[in-house]
From TrEMBL:
One of its GO terms (biological process) is prolyl-tRNA aminoacylation. It is found in: Cytoplasm. Residues 33-466 form the Aminoacyl-transfer RNA synthetases class-II family profile domain. Catalyzes the attachment of proline to tRNA(Pro) in a two-step reaction: proline is first activated by ATP to form Pro-AMP and then transferred to the acceptor end of tRNA(Pro). As ProRS can inadvertently accommodate and process non-cognate amino acids such as alanine and cysteine, to avoid such errors it has two additional distinct editing activities against alanine. One activity is designated as 'pretransfer' editing and involves the tRNA(Pro)-independent hydrolysis of activated Ala-AMP. CDD domains: ProRS-INS (cd04334), ProRS_anticodon_short (cd00861), ProRS_core_prok (cd00779). Keywords: Aminoacyl-tRNA synthetase, ATP-binding, Cytoplasm, Ligase, Nucleotide-binding, Protein biosynthesis. This is Proline--tRNA ligase. Its EC number is 6.1.1.15. It comes from the Bacteria. One of its GO terms (cellular component) is cytosol. Its main location: cytoplasm. InterPro entries: aa-tRNA-synt_IIb, aa-tRNA-synth_II, aa-tRNA-synth_II/BPL/LPL, Anticodon-bd, Anticodon-bd_dom_sf, Pro-tRNA-ligase_IIa, Pro-tRNA-synth_IIa_bac-type, Pro-tRNA-Synthase_IIa_type1. One of its GO terms (molecular function) is aminoacyl-tRNA deacylase activity.
Length: 565
RNA sequence: CGGGGUAUAGCUCAGUCUGGUAGAGCGUUGCGUUUGGGACGCAAAAGUCGGGGGUUCGAAUCCCUCUGCCCCGACCA
């Protein structure tokens, strides 16, 4: 590509509301333009990168035996009624009506459509297993779109759905997809980690997320330094403490804490550390309020909590009014001591081994000191309901846990029969009997990968693309093309030679001053730069500089081809 | 959904408190000089000050209202 014939649109100034590096750099490089909240146009430059990612994904999916198809982005309400998700999916589902007032949604995902396709197309176990995928635009009406294409409302996703007769077959395809994902992210040059993920309300058997490691990531992941254990913090189990509860030595006392409502304030006020306090949360349970007790320095894990029988799938905090009505105090002073018998008290494993602890006094402006389980407070059940923290023992018993941040770019999931059952997707098995298929689903956030890569790879000058994602591998920059015809001819010749060797090259023939040209090529992250000038022409060498190098070096054309492989 | 902010030239923003001729930088266009790390000079085009209503002799500015966008929060007491 000759840049004079391209639309490169870098800018110096960007809106102040771009917060993270990838968002800023994508705007500055002119890869994307915002159309409306969470909606972006991909410029010619941005699209080149997006296509690179897409093609790697497509190649590896094909290699792994998946078959590409394309489903509509607009989907009829009736299909979503069949799985009950028309209502259950919530506000993220963008609902639209056509001229006949028929209702549709813009697809946030395609389980319904693919399962409908499968129930019509697949009739025999002989057609299984099969794995269909598409690369398609999705729309999720996010509560708060942010970070550019990282959390946009409209985004490009690769989603695959596999169909099986048996769990063993599903597990096999799942493993193949896991391997394919590992290849994809490795080829894309990303530093990533596959982590165990929560299977959510669907309750499937296995699920892994592929997380690109970046400090700006919205997910927290826990990984062991003594094994390959890694899990989303939502999923990571906090092991029971090894010590048992000491015997009570202190007497229960009620103390005045007039304005101290947070653990930090109470602990500081009473001169104890937060890990000697018990914090109590009241949630809406299946049959009335439920109390959760945790050590003051720990945080409740909502995913774990929601799975408690007492809560029945959701973890919703009780309102101040409900709490006032039930126990006569407000948030900030709740404690396990003297709670009504009707409220189950679920105690975290670590909170359960505390003795002589501090907790809320169940009266405004009071806390208790010297509280002890059994003697002063009832335990209905002990459970793991907290987030793991840095330094916890790894659940597999090997090493200790560390916490890192990640950007979820892929998710593989053994769905089971949930959708196939709801939509009656059945085949005849080898006994001639009708059998519901079991499913897997495998997603990759194609557009998000572009942002995630930049998060991971950038410097002061701009983006530092991995070779596999760069819009072009090489930039040939011409200095002062108008002065000497030989200079622009030499640049042209090199440009053509590189492309002829299958090395994607861009020729910067815009005639900019060198500073502007170099700055642009660095901003848009081209891995290799070759400068052609009268200076080099006289010397018979090319001036080469890699994107992350700080000095140029003189090399021959032969050396350049060697270097580019 | 709650709270806060914001909307002025293509972009980034001043100007609003204290009402009185619409501003800057970047970008764009033309001419000239320049040409190895985002050049310089001269000239120019460019705005329904988000929409609607009101107050006023007069509104970007004050009041009401609608809308878009952004930020924070939406359980961790």
């Amino acid at each position: 590509m000759r840049l004079s014939q391209f639309h490169l649109a870098t800018v110096k100034e960007i809106p102040a509301d771009a917060e993270i590096a990838s968002h800023k750099l994508m705007l500055r490089a002119g890869m994307i333009r915002r159309l409306a909240s969470g909606l972006y146009t991909w410029s010619p430059l941005g699209l080149r990168v997006l296509r690179k990612v897409e093609n790697v994904v497509r190649e590896e999916m094909n290699r792994a035996g998946a078959i590409e198809l394309l489903m509509p982005s607009v989907q009829p309400r009736e299909l979503w009624e069949e799985t009950g998700r028309w209502e259950k999916f919530g506000g993220q589902l963008l609902k639209i009506k056509d001229r006949k007032q028929q209702e549709f949604c813009y697809g946030p995902t395609h389980e319904e459509v693919i399962t409908d396709f499968a129930r019509n197309e697949l009739k025999s176990y002989k057609q299984l297993p099969v794995n269909f995928y598409q690369i398609q635009t999705k729309f999720r009406d996010e509560i708060r779109p942010r970070f550019g294409v990282m959390r946009a409302r409209e985004f490009l996703m690769k989603d695959a759905y596999s169909f099986h007769l048996t769990q063993e077959s599903l597990a096999a395809t799942y493993a193949v997809m896991y391997q394919a994902y590992t290849r994809i992210f490795t080829r894309l040059g990303l530093s990533f980690r596959a982590v165990q993920a929560d299977t959510g309300a669907i309750g499937g058997n296995a699920s892994h997320e592929f997380q690109v490691l970046a400090d700006s990531g919205e997910d927290a992941i826990a990984f062991s330094d003594g094994s390959d254990y890694a899990a989303n913090i939502e999923k990571a189990e906090a092991l029971a403490p090894t010590n048992t509860r000491p015997t009570a030595t202190a007497a229960l006392q009620q103390v005045a804490t007039p304005t101290q409502k947070t653990i930090e304030d109470v602990a500081a006020f009473l001169g104890v550390s937060p890990d000697r306090c018990v914090k109590t949360l009241l949630l809406r349970g299946r049959d009335g309020l439920v109390a959760l007790c945790l050590r003051g320095d720990h945080q409740v894990n909502e995913v774990k909590a929601a799975k408690l029988d007492e809560l029945g799938g959701e973890s919703i905090l009780a309102s101040e009014e409900e709490i006032l009505a039930a126990i006569g105090t407000r948030p900030g002073f709740i404690g396990p001591v003297g709670l009504p018998d009707s409220i189950p008290v679920i105690v975290d494993r670590d909170a359960a081994v505390l003795a002589d602890f501090v907790c809320g006094g169940n009266a405004d402006g009071t806390h208790c000191t010297g509280a002890n389980w059994a003697r002063d407070a009832r335990i209905s059940r002990i459970a793991d309901i907290r987030n793991v923290v840095e330094g916890d023992r790894s659940p597999d018993g090997e090493g200790i846990l560390h916490i890192a941040r990640g950007i979820e770019v892929g998710h593989v999931f053994q769905l089971g029969t949930k959708y196939a059952e709801a939509l009656d997707a059945v085949v005849l098995n080898d006994q001639g009997k009708t059998q519901v298929m079991t499913m897997g689903c495998y997603g990759i956030g194609v557009s998000r990968i572009v942002a995630a890569a930049i998060e991971q790879r950038h410097d002061d000058a701009g983006i530092v693309w991995p070779e596999a994602m760069a819009p072009w591998r090489v930039a040939v920059c011409v200095i002062n093309p108008k002065h000497l015809p030989e200079v622009s001819e030499a640049a042209q010749a090199l440009y053509e030679a590189l492309n002829a060797h299958g090395i994607e090259t861009v020729l910067d023939d815009r005639g900019l001053r060198p500073g502007g040209m170099f700055a642009d090529m660095e901003l848009i992250g081209i891995p290799h730069r070759v400068v052609i000038s009268d200076r080099g022409l006289t010397a018979g060498t090319l001036e080469y500089r890699g994107r992350t190098e700080t000095e140029s070096r003189a090399i021959t054309q032969e050396q350049l081809f060697d270097l580019l492989g």
